[in-house]
Amino acid sequence: MFGLRLALSKTIATGPNLIHQQTRNTFVLKRKWPPPLHKKGGKPSKLRARHFVYDLIEDTSVTKKSDLKIILNQFVDGVGNQGDVLSLRPTIAYRDYLLPGLAVYANPENLEKYQVDESKPKVTSKYSSPYVQRTMGCLSRLVLQIIMSKTEPWTLQPWHIRASFRKACYVVPEHAIIMPPVTITGPDLSLQEKEFYVTVKINNKEEVNVRCRIHHWATGLERLPWVKDHWKKPFEALIPEQASVLENLPLPT
């Protein structure tokens, strides 16, 4: 019986389903009851069971690891430019930057390769903010619906554009909105199937064109029918001078 059990245990231990993986763990311990000292040259005292009771001082596997320094090897939208040194948590650095190939370790070789000098101030980017490029991309793909009255006379003003941006979940102040070169008045149903663009200035530096369309709103029988996926369809330019710019603006998919 003992021989069968021994053979079975050896078979299980050497089976292909077991995974032998080495781990690096360090535990700092301290004896709860120190053993007695012995005289010089004398025989050490025999250790008893209580001498093998330890208090855990430190477990390195659960100790918070220090931040990891990395160097961006390319421009990362919303983060920084090539050569910028970031100090991040190890999990974030591995997952979001090192594994995708967006950054490298900030070791002496890479610091020399990318000519990084942490004592020097960072080179100013061509954008006023790390988020400007992303913001410009979102606004350029936006089809801004401007809801105007079908029954009451109106003249398109910057505050109409600001309110339409707010309805689309964008906060754009009036001083950052550059209106089209012509005055648009209504109600005029001929504006319903046409579009134009306004220019938004970001941080008083970058400019982006935003596609706009006027929709006449009314209640009851005067209400216009709803058009499915109207934002995906190209419309005629209201201002002929803006036609070439509108053709280059992307439509949402």
Automatic annotation (TrEMBL):
Keywords from the UniProt entry: Ribonucleoprotein, Ribosomal protein
The keyword Metal-binding belongs to this UniProt entry's keyword annotation: no
GO CC aspect terms: ribonucleoprotein complex; ribosome
Gene3D superfamilies named among the record's database cross-references: Ribosomal protein L9, N-terminal domain
Any one GO MF annotation of this record: structural constituent of ribosome
Keyword Repeat applies: no
GO biological process: translation
Pfam families xrefs: Ribosomal_L9_N
Domain named Ribosomal protein L9: residues: 69-114
InterPro entries named in the record: Ribosomal_bL9, Ribosomal_bL9/RNase_H1_N, Ribosomal_bL9_N, Ribosomal_bL9_N_sf
Family (UniProt): Belongs to the bacterial ribosomal protein bL9 family.
PANTHER family, A to Z: 50S RIBOSOMAL PROTEIN L9
Protein name: Large ribosomal subunit protein bL9m
